Amino acid sequence: MPYTEDDPNEIAVPIHRGAHIADPGPLGLAAFALTTFILSCANAGFISSDAEAAVFGVALFYGGLTQLAAGMWEFLKGNVFGATAFSSYGAFWLSFWYLVTYVTEDMGDERHVGVGIFLLGWTIFTVYMWFASTRISIALFVTFSVLLVAFVFLTLGALLEVTGLTRVGGYFGLAAAAGAWYTSAAGILSTTFGRVVIPTGPRG
User: Fold this and answer.
1) 171 neighbors 103 (Cβ within 8 angstroms)
2) How many domains does one find in the chain?
3) Alpha carbons within 13 A on the beta-carbon side of 109
4) Could you read off the pLDDT of 50-90 as tens digits, one per residue?
5) Is residue 134 part of a domain?
6) 126 vs 170: CA distance, rounded Å
7) How far apart are CA 106 and CA 108, in angstroms?
8) Does 2 have pLDDT greater than 50?
9) Is 201 within a domain?
10) Crossing angle of helices 80-98/25-43, nearest 10°?
11) What is the DSSP letter of 11?
12) What is the arithmetic mean of pLDDT over 114-138?
């Protein structure tokens, strides 16, 4: 047991980092899920390319800024995985919004290469986050598993300019959105009801 420096006989009370802050995890997951859902509907071909623009505002404000804020709160909670995941994927949506809004039309014939390399980088990041998710919960592991597969197909679809691969990536993206929503709902309900309502599985 730790003791205070002033009185060696007095036991120090441990301070839990971020104990005064509510769990930002469900918020970050919900922001990721909704934005991924809309874009994946376009990638899977369920909505037209013109309707894809509906994701831009959500990518900027919800998937981007809100998820980035959730990542900052996770830093205060001392949760390295959550802080890294939410901050990074929040930045992904912000950079995606900027890329599509201001950059891609200037790429000309090399657009598919630029977008493909962009997605490849995020695929690499998702690989080691997938490994780390094995130590969090089954729900997160499943979510990151399908997210990783989605990034692989989207990357190949962009680099090879094969629409079919992008559509497969869209299907897996929808599965990732469903997993993120499930895990978010589990956190919200367990906090509200004070018990486990939706199981997420044990830690690894």
Assistant:
1) no
2) 1
3) 0
4) 788 889 999 999 999 999 999 999 999 999 999 999 999 99
5) yes
6) 16
7) 6
8) no
9) no
10) 40
11) B
12) 97
Query: How does residue 105 score in pLDDT terms, banded at 50, 70 and 90?
Result: confident
169 close to 157: Cβ distance less than 8 angstroms: yes
Domain holding 171, by residue range, is 25-193
User: What are the tokens at 77?
Assistant: 């909670």
42 assigned to some structural domain: yes
Copy the structure tokens of residue 5.
């420096």
184: number of Cβ within 10 Å: 22
Residue 89 lies in a domain: yes
Percent with pLDDT over 90 in the chain: 78
Q: What share of the chain is helix, strand, coil (3-state, %, to 5)?
A: 75, 0, 25
Name every residue whose Cβ is closer than 8 Å to that of residue 130 and which is 6 or more positions away in sequence. 141, 144, 145, 147, 148
